[in-house]
Specification:
This protein is mainly alpha-helical. The chain has eight helices and three strands, in the order αααααβββααα.
Length: 193
């Protein structure tokens, strides 16, 4: 059986401050993300997906605990690996061209992500995703939703579960959705594109 592990971060837990504090990272990465990894590994035996990748589990598992935990491991891994204390602040090259084509500008994209994140009722994710034909779109997904189930390629996600921001921003989700751009690393998104 494949054992899933918490990914190593390429930065220290306090490196994303002030946008994201060490305390938030200790809980969000160290406790929440780790719990999803542990739950996933505990749910795999007997599932028929013991040796599957996260992507295969997300696309192939029925609704329920296995799918939710696999998606949350994937979602959180992408989220944390899209952040950097020395983030590339703007996209360039083909990704920048695609953003301009489909959203008008990077600023317009950030604005739309902020509005979608603020409007998402309850917990979930806002995604920048690419369709097979290359068109970029925003996907808002509640809970453990993931664009892979819609045959889209995830490029960037913003976590709007309360554990992502409540320690630092309390109930001010829009403030978190503004501050996150200080640490989103467009270099990571360009690699996925």
């Amino acid at each position: 059986m494949k054992t899933h592990v918490l990914p190593q971060l390429p930065y220290e837990l306090d490196a994303l401050a002030p946008a994201m504090s060490r305390e938030t990272m200790e809980y969000h990465y160290g406790k929440h993300h780790q719990a999803y990894v542990n739950n996933l590994n505990n749910l795999l035996p007997g599932s028929g997906l013991e040796d599957a990748s996260l992507e295969q589990i997300i696309v192939g598992a029925p609704q329920g605990g296995l799918l939710n935990n696999a998606a949350q491991v994937y979602n959180h891994t992408m989220f944390f690996l899209s952040l950097s204390p020395s983030a590339k602040k703007e996209p360039s090259g083909p990704l920048a061209e695609a953003i301009k084509r489909d959203f008008g500008s990077t600023e317009a994209l950030r604005d739309q992500i902020g509005k979608a994140g603020a409007a998402l009722f309850g917990s979930g994710w806002v995604w920048l995703a690419r369709a097979k034909g290359g068109k970029l779109s925003l996907v808002s997904s509640p809970n453990a939703g993931n664009p892979l189930v819609q045959s889209l390629t995830p490029l960037l996600n913003i976590d709007v579960w309360e554990h992502a921001y409540y320690i630092d921003y309390r109930n001010r989700r829009p403030d978190f959705l503004t501050a996150i751009w200080d640490i989103v690393d467009w270099a990571a998104v360009e690699k996925r594109f």
